[in-house]
Amino acid sequence: MQEAAHEAAAHEAAAREAAAPRPTTNEPPARPPGYAQTFAVPEFRAVFAAHALSLLGVIVSEIALSVLVYDLTGSPLLSALTFALGFLPYVVGGTLLAGVADRFPARRVLVTCDLVCAACVALMVAPGAGIGVLLLLRCALAVVSPVFQGTRTATLADVLGDGDLFVLGRSLLRIVSQSALLVGYGLGGLLLTVVSPRHALLITVGTFLASAVLLRVGTRHRPARTDAASTGPGALVGDSLRGAGRVLSHPRVRALLLLFWVPPMFAVVPEALAAPYADDLGVGSTGLGLLMCALPAGTIAGELYAGSRLRPATRERITLPLVCAALLPYAGYALRPGLAVSLLLLLVSGAGSAYTLGLDQWFVRAVPEELRGRAMTLLTAGLMTIQGVGMALAGVAAQFAGVRTTVAGAGVLGTVCCALLALGARRTERRDRADHDMTDR
User: Fold this and answer.
1) What H or E segment, with its residue span, contains residue 175?
2) Comparing 290 with 422, which gets the higher pLDDT?
3) In what ranges is there compositional bias, type Basic and acidic residues (predicted)?
């Protein structure tokens, strides 16, 4: 009886303790991963440094090669064509060679691409290289580039996982690329005041080789994602085309690719028309430089804020609204703003491109792992190609409608297209969620 009374008292005390209010703590909820955590991963540090070096090489080579072609020919058209060739062959490498990203170990692909780029630039330095050879080698660089970038992005998911660290890693690589637009061409032009174009190209060879060494030493070997039993050129091209077809056949992936591709086609319009717009405003070369810098500056600010201050769920929640709103500031060009307001419109539009962080998460989640390399390569190729198309169309439209009308029209038409694409992406998201609920997978 005594034991039973003690047991009852113990139960009563336990019940009182459970019912008593628990002390609250002032500890903040765990913060999501930040940019600093990506650098805690040694492999990412190597990938990041290699990206910066490769980008430096590309910028220096573009400037030096353009000047070299102009020195050899005296033709502004051929000099401009050198830049254009940096866009157009992307679609070749991104479709016909996309299979390389999944059929071979990623580290081998990345190192080989860097070595091929170094060899192409080294051949440009040869004294006997004529204009035809220079342009052909420039095309070769552009063909290799989407394979390298797609493989690197797929490898980033292996290095950082396919969660928020991957999104932040991708964001950091984009921030470096946008920062290069702000300072790279200026530094490249300054370099050419000290050395000749051919000597500047030698620096590019060094940056590509350094990138290859970093990737070889700083990243670990990973097996290929798919079997490469047949590796002939015909088999590779066929496999690449089939892989692209498989990627594009998935409604969710296709909708996300369009969201990656279409907004930048309209976003490049002010950049393509910056020179004639600066001339209309009468702001000279200083104003032109500011107009060229405003959009990437806004992009960097938007990505940094979204990546460091917003939680992953919040970034995904605002993705589609930002897609629909990012191009709308361009419509302000119809009001004939001065330089200050034009810069503000470009800054706001650039900040809206923070939607890419949410898209990155959705895309890596939607693409089957065995197709990840091809999907990332196709994404890169389409993005670069469609920006080139957008620049060309902007020039044609401005010839007939004028610069301000063209930019404002790009804002309105682009916003409509983005809204339609956002609705399509929302439908595929609901369909995928329904399929997931039905299959419980």
Assistant:
1) helix 164-191
2) 422
3) 1-15
